[in-house]
Amino acid sequence: MPGCRPNTFRGGGCYFGPDITERILRKHNLELLVRSHECKCEGYEYVHGRKVITIFSASNYYEQGSNRGAYMKIGPDMKPYFVQYQVSKTKKHLTLKQRVGIVEQSAVKELRERLYANKTSLMIAFLEKDKGKTGYISGSQWSSAVESVLKLDVPWNMIRHQLNGPSITETLYRNRSNLETIFRLMDKDNSGVVSMDEFEECCRLLNEHTNSNIPLDSIEDLAKSIDMDKDGNIDFNEFLEAFRLVDYSKTGLKSSKTSMEIPSPVNSIHIIS
Question: Alpha-carbon distance 113 to 103, whole Å?
Answer without folding.
Answer: 16
